[in-house]
């Protein structure tokens, strides 16, 4: 059995924009429905969505028949959890709240087998290797793994150049909500100072030769980030889309 290729990583390295969508409802049924639409990547949210390893795996399986690439956001940078998500078959991980290059390097190490890193060897019993059926899995796994880290504090901005230049970090994702709070503007990601920090940050990441990413539900903002050089941009979320649609429908029928 051949080692699966990571199309998302290939696209980022080729500087091709990838349009994504957030899955926060922890539903494999919703994940499959959204996958059928054709987004380049789908983020399974284990930080703020009620997901765990098992529900994330169920959604990854639901997405598998389609062209969308599953990305898992973990709740934190726990080394053991990173190992588990890789072992079930995720090739792209998004790790929140990364504030230093040292933290980023530790995350990279957790994703790779020795000698490059210190990922534990459970390949023979792991879904990632199709239970030992992928030829030379341990030799080839690293080439298809994509490490994305989140910069969402003023500390991360201060260390952004070093984080982006960390060997093995493939992309830096800007978290607008937490970043705005850290900058003293909670709930106001559109504040001019926050937006300037994001656009300046995208430029820093690009100068490091890495991919920059972000989420926004505003079409004009998404296009502006893409124009500025962001290469993985999420343009919506299942919970937000559902609530917007439900509120609009209810407003059309106010009686009863």
Structural features, described:
Helices cover 42% and strands 16% of the residues. The protein is globular and about 60 Å long. It has one domain (7-252): Phosphoenolpyruvate-binding domains (TIM Barrel, Alpha-Beta Barrel), CATH 3.20.20.60. The mean pLDDT is 97. Helix 2 (28-35) runs parallel beside helix 3 (53-63). It is built from 12 helices and 8 strands.
In a nutshell, what does this entry contain?
The chain is built from 12 helices and 8 strands.
End-to-end CA span: 59 Å
Q: Write the element-wise H/E pattern from the N-terminal end onward.
A: HEHEHEHEHHEHHEHHEHEH
Return the CATH class: Alpha Beta
The CATH architecture is Alpha-Beta Barrel
- Placed side by side, the strands forming the largest sheet appear as 1-2-3-4-5-6-7-8
The number of E-state strands comes to 8
Instruction: Find the structural class using helix and strand composition.
Output: alpha/beta
The CATH homologous superfamily = Phosphoenolpyruvate-binding domains
Main β sheet profile: 8 strands, parallel, barrel
**Weakly predicted, low-confidence segments:** none
Q: What is the average per-residue confidence, as pLDDT, rounded to a whole number?
A: 97
CATH topology: TIM Barrel
- What percent of residues adopt helix (DSSP H or I)? 40-55%
Radius of gyration: 18 Å
Quaternary organization? single chain
What shape does the CA trace take?
Answer: globular
Count of the domains: 1
Strand content: 15-25%
How many helices in DSSP terms? 12
């Amino acid at each position: 059995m051949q080692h699966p290729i990571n199309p998302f990583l290939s696209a980022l390295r080729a500087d091709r924009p990838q349009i994504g969508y957030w899955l926060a409802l922890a539903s494999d049924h919703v994940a499959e429905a959204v996958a059928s639409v054709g987004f380049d990547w789908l983020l399974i949210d284990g930080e703020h969505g009620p997901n765990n390893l098992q529900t994330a795996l169920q959604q990854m399986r639901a997405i598998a028949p389609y062209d969308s690439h599953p990305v898992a956001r973990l709740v934190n940078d726990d080394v053991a959890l990173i190992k588990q998500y890789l072992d079930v078959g995720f090739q792209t991980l998004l790790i929140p709240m990364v504030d230093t290059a040292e933290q980023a390097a530790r995350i990279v190490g957790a994703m790779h087998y020795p000698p490059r890193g210190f990922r534990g060897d459970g390949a023979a019993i792991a879904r990632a290797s199709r239970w030992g059926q992928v030829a030379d899995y341990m030799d080839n796994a690293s080439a298809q793994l994509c490490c994305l880290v989140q910069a969402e504090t003023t500390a991360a901005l201060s260390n952004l150049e070093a984080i982006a230049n960390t060997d093995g970090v493939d992309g830096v994702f800007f978290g607008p909500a937490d970043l705005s709070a850290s900058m003293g503007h909670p709930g106001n990601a559109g504040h001019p100072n926050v937006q300037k920090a994001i656009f300046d940050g995208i430029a820093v990441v690009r100068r490091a030769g890495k991919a920059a990413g972000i989420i926004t539900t505003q079409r004009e903002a998404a296009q502006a980030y893409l124009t500025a050089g962001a290469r993985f941009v999420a343009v919506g979320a299942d919970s937000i889309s559902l609530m917007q649609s439900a509120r609009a429908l209810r407003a059309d029928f106010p009686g009863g």
